[in-house]
Amino acid sequence: MNQIFSKLISKSTGISERQVTNTVGLLEEGCTIPFIARYRKEVTGTLDEVQVASVNDALEKLKDIEKRKETILKTIEEQGKLTPELKTRIENSWDSTELEDIYLPYKPKRKTRAEVARQKGLEPLATFLLLQNPNADVDKKVKEFINKEKGVNSAEEAIQGAQDIIAEQVSESEDARNIVRFNFKRDAVITSTKTKTKAKTPEAQQEWEDASQKYRDYFDFSEKLARCASHRLLAMRRGEAEGFLKVSISGDDERCLDKLDRQFLRNSSRSAELVWDAIEDAFKRLIKPSIETEFANISKEKADEEAIRIFVKNLEQLLMSAPLGQKRVLALDPGFRTGCKVVCLDAEGNLLHNEAIYPHPPKNERRAAGDKIWTLTKQYKIEAISIGNGTASRETEEFVKSLGLPESIQVFVVSEDGASIYSASKVAREEFPDYDVTVRGAVSIGRRLMDPLAELVKIDPNSIGVGQYQKDVDQKALKHSLDQTVEMCVNKVGVNLNTASKHLLTYISGLGPAIAQNIVDYRAQNGAFSSRKELLKVPKLGPKAFEQSAGFLRVSGGKQPLDNSAVHPESYPIVEKMAKDLKCTVADLLSDKTLRDKIDIKKYVTDKVGIPTLEDIMQELDKPGRDPRQQLEAFAFSKDVKELEDVQPGMVLPGIVTNITNFGCFVDVGVHTKGLVHISELADKFVKDPTEVVELHQHVQVRVIEVDLKRGRMALSMKGLN
Q1: Quick one: residue 494, left, alpha or beta (phi over 0 = left, psi -120 to 50 = alpha)?
Q2: What is the pTM of this model?
Q3: Which CATH number fits domain 644-717: 1.10.10.10, 3.40.50.1370, 2.40.50.140, 3.40.1190.20?
Q4: What is the pLDDT of residues 304-315, one digit of tens each?
Q5: CA angle, 599 then 601 then 602, to 5°
Q6: CA 617/CA 624 separation, integer angstroms
Q7: Among 266, 357, 531, 708, whose CB has the most other CB atoms within 10 angstroms?
Q8: Do the beta carbons of residue 505 and residue 520 sit within 8 Å?
């Protein structure tokens, strides 16, 4: 079976069959995607984590189809209708649509009109009509089936029952369904119209009208389904779910019926006329609604995939945002009436102090607040200040920068999306049981500056605010993709075994929640880990979990310097052999580039270790424990604009990309309203995918095209500016 899987996966992914076979073998052994991509390059032919993930996803889909086939075969066999030919056809089918078409005639149904007709003994009449014999006496044949005891009281009832049977047979025909399916694939149109309100009072009517306006672009909308962009389809589906829109998908009925005519009619006899009526009924009552639903599901699935792709790309960029690193941070959660919550954190992110200051209206205790910031920066030797980008952010940033603090203390504004979700979560309560949500939120803002990845893993990705219609897509598929993305990012960066939280450790290859908790408990009882090898003393962390996780966990200051690198323990003997050949220590290799330059990696190739692994080892020896994330850069908004009213068309403003969709990106220019750079305004060239030209949190220059104060919107352009 694995050979069949390998061929099918290779065909769907474009990855060679040999690479797929080897990768599937590793996955079946319990290896994780990050481990395979990083430490089994020779086996996979250097597939990256995205390719390994695509193999894994394709494998899971095939396994689901395999389970479905088992159910189908069992059901048909119980009916006594499983012929050798049918069994072979089902076993050889790996297309879920084709499989369901094969199964349809045997699928247990509720009592249909055709089944009622069969119980009345009308199936032979249906068979007779389907022969379409031009010389047959149809009326005479029909009279034979009038039987009041069975409920057939007239010729009309007999014909109707026979036609019901024919209609069901046609609707279950693979040829008929494929005719309609092909037509929909080529000609289907999605249509959206405004629904009528059921409001009973003028006030409710007006409220409904106001709420519906966000969907006014779709009040009278029609487009070829194949051309409908994912964001438009998801917007229509959301409008439909909220009761403002009626959405339908339809094909070319006349063309479908013409094709079905050619498929099933043989002549123009009386029998053929009755069969035609049954075919038309089959199309309108059975096939068309079924194919409409099928294409609605297919189009939704494709739209979901596109939205999830964009969300995953955004999340990856957000998680891989540049960290400040281990610095002592003062964090501010800004506010007006409730004041600004201030917390001071040490270099490991531990909370040292918290209180509130009131530099803004209505209290305006600006001097006292400034004195407090000065005192705290000296008392806790603060190296950086982190300010949340919510309400009063610009005012708080200006206030802090006006204090004349030492130039060595940099001021940063960070996204606080999801901070309120975190502060009220079980995770936050476990970390800070003695503090309220305001303190927890401020701590999160400070830690996000130090290490965005370590802090954001504690928050449901759905709450981070970088998606496109994420609430409308398949939640199971979304969660799978997001969890996979978080896992890839965490393992790409690696974590400090002695400081990582339980939540960060959970995403490390081979661990999971239970072992992550055991690691934290072991640390609490025994102190810091002195080596990676000590991991084997952690309860339930056996050799397999060690193999999968060790390379992604860092231990600094231990006896083995390689423990603070991405070199896997299984490769330590290779590095030790290199050092021995050069008559030096491993520590010497790490510190002396001239020694590393003398190494000829070809000498260390074996039947299990190839050039890809050796090149990775050399890169690690050059920069052990290097962080793949970029360096953090300070940013400042224009001093001339603080509110949307300050923004005028033609202005060129600095901004930060806060979200990317498949129709463009949103940019924060510091006025509490994000402006849209449409995909057509992203660059001087044609852009098919916005992620090709912009990244999340990228610092950009934008030109204001239009400002709509009433709707609170801005249209921006990046053409000729970046």
Answers
A1: left
A2: 0.85
A3: 2.40.50.140
A4: 998 899 889 989
A5: 130
A6: 9
A7: 357
A8: yes
